[in-house]
Write a structure and sequence with these properties.
heterodimer; A: about 400 residues; 6-stranded mixed sheet; 3-stranded antiparallel sheet; 19 strands; B: mainly beta; 4-stranded mixed sheet; 4-stranded antiparallel sheet
Amino acid sequence: MEVTETEESALKDRTNRQLRSKELLDELIDKAKLNKDDLEPSVQHIYLSNSLTANEEYKLLELDDDGLNYLLEGNSLIIRGSETENAVCCTKNATFSFKVAEISNPLLITSNLSLSGKCDLEASNSEVLFLTNSYFLMAKEKPKLQKIKNLLELNLYSGRAYEQNNAQKYTIEHFLDCIQASEEEIYQYLNYIQAFQIDGFWRLLDFRYLNQIMDNILKLIEEKCWLFDKIPAKDIYQELDSIYEISVLNQVVLYYFTRNDDDANFYSMRKEKIVYFYADSILRATIKMRFTEFQMILEKSLPSNLGLEFNLSLIQDLCYVEEPYIYYLNVLDMPDDLEKRFKYLFEKRKKWCLEELRAFVQDLCSNNASEISNALTKYCRSYTQNGTKYFTSRV
Amino acid sequence: MVQIFIKTSEDTGINEWAIIELQGDLECENGKDINGKFMADLFFNKDGTPILILGHHVMYGKVCNLEKPMVLIKKHKKLNEIDDGMELDDMKENFKTEYLVKSVIRKKILFNKRPKPIVF
């Protein structure tokens, strides 16, 4: 619509646009059959910005209140992705999918707009800066972190003597550049797989090397007759620092012992973790063995007098039992995608009972009962036999 | 893989803007440049109803709160910090893309009722 404005009533405001004249507006109101008495006295003139069509630099992003506050407090959201992957968006401690939503109605993003019409000025100008049919939205998701383990396994640590100078080593910055996850989730995963910090780089220890260190520490504890809950960590370092680096010993202690609340000089054994470790070392060496034999060997491997007791429930994500055998099956070796995880599990074994299966999928379900239940419903069939519920593949 | 930061800018404050949502496509005269052009007049009834006069049409709308807030972000090329060891050749690819938050949007005016034609 082209309506001419009368010359004498053409005014300009701060943005240097002509304000539309009173006569023109009165005519519009009249022709539009609006009742002037019903209207608020102020009017807003909406212009398209000078660079509206040129502007490919704007994007519209939908957040939730937490996400918005996070930004307004000065934090950054970080989009991480490559051309071949779907992008994710991360805060310091969470990962979200980053997708486009398209709608049929055009959205005009307008500056300086009053939404009540109660304005001091009789007339004002607003500008449409961006016109779009789409916006980005975020939904919380679980990051894929197994790549970290795969990278670290390429260069396991077995002590300085065996170090390869030209092998690729990783810091947290390297991970932030190639893993689609938040920083804190990466640290949590590094803790979960028991990674060590050596010379500023994250490393996984060669299992036999760690086994050696553990053997030495436990032998020392037995020799010195230390109580399981009163272990002087400093003495461990003193006795063993000729063989192993103190920073490595320290991290082993942090993984397998806890500092006492009442006296920071002493640590307590994390009994279940140590039992798990020795069970792991036996199982991974044999893969399949008689359950009774396994129990016997484990008992012999564990130091006596320290109250270390074995219970099958301690190692549920490390094995499964099909009488009379026990089979090694480590959750850390399994795919980190839920669908692939179930496929892997059912390829190993056609049917599982609830407790066994739960142990192998709970890490992908935030250890949450209802999430686990939903996953079982989605990916498995179930039936009951002799009072026990069994799960099989849907495929 | 790339990392692209979305953040607020230290220099400018955060504006609070709004969305006008129309039904159907916004048609403009063919071939003409629409940049900088006048689009519409917005009135409000005393009962708070927004009224838009756009072209030959008058539309009645509704002010709504967005279910979730939105932000308008703008692409910005930032110069990478210069390391001492950098050569002149390295400087060519020394820009990092980031997005700065220009405004927060919590409300919109929705015009989805059938427009009434204006006869001049």
